[in-house]
Amino acid sequence: MTKSLFNVAGRVVIVTGGGRGIGRVYCEAFAQAGMRVVLADIHGEEAERAAAAIRASGGAALAVRTDISKPDDAKAMAEAAAREFGGIDALVNNASLMSSLPRRPWSEIPLEEWDRVMAVDLRGLLLCCRAVYPYLKSRGKGKIVNISSGRVLEGTPNRLHYTTAKAGVIGFTRALARELGSDKINVNVVLPGLTLSDTQLASSQPGYLSGDYDRQRALQRAQYPEDLVGTVLYLLSDASDFVTGQSFNVDGGKVMH
Predict the structure, then answer these.
(1) Which of 2, 61, 145, 160 has minimal CB crowding within 10 Å?
(2) pLDDT tens, 31-82?
(3) DSSP letters of 137-198?
(4) What is the C-alpha to C-alpha distance for residues 135 and 106, in angstroms, rounded to an integer?
(5) In the β-sheet with 142-147, what is the strand arrangement from edge to edge?
């Protein structure tokens, strides 16, 4: 009984931003757990390479080029997943606009950049949930896991638009959990700490990822994408069937929340 609570084999999960960074690590881990994975990413070629690697390792994976800020793309993403795998069981809203954003004071953020972050990080969240919802409802249950950021808890400066949007993800999660509870759809949110993904490493200046940050954690080491997998898998499994509207801070104990 206990083992079956954590068994996600055969379930269909869509991961937005699944072609690179933390999203790719999620997809690889989910496939290893036996899930059928849809990698939805605006970087279509990277998503296809990641999906091909999963298939070569014996997993089931489909890549779908998706701009989550566009309604038609979100709808096509859900349709492709259902067509390929016969339905949808879960959605991980991982995609966001972050690594390409310059770090600068709030007063210097161009309005066009602010609007683009909100379009991807918040409107994209709404569009993907709306697109997937009918398929989850038809299953009689489902799981939605949204990805926020530990920046919200720390008030980290210099990307105010990103931090603001990720705070919105928490409110979105709580309200949507209320609305979808009667459909037996769980909605939760994970807040990663500073994580050494390939995209984070590529966008950070030397010294930004110093050991000083790691020493502020209760668990005094760097955080890697693999450190997030267990929490997300738990939220996708039956073990979390009575957990909804909750925020899971995963940062090695830097912020106690």
Answers:
(1) 2
(2) 999 999 999 999 999 999 999 999 999 999 999 999 999 999 999 999 999 9
(3) HHHT-EEEEEE--THHHHT--S-HHHHHHHHHHHHHHHHHHHHHGGGTEEEEEEEE-SB--H
(4) 40
(5) 60-65, 36-41, 12-16, 90-93, 142-147, 185-192, 247-250
- One-letter amino acid at 163 equals T
Enumerate domains of the chain plus CATH numbers. 2-250 (3.40.50.720)
User: Do the Cβ atoms of 26 and 50 come closer than 8 Å?
Assistant: no
Task: Give catalytic residues, as residue numbers.
Answer: 162
Please list the residues that pair with 190 across neighbouring strands.
147, 248
Give the pLDDT band of residue 196 (cuts 50, 70, 90). Answer: confident
Q: Give how far the C-alpha of residue 177 lies from the chain's centroid of Cα atoms, to the nearest Å.
A: 16
Copy the structure tokens of residue 238.
């039956």
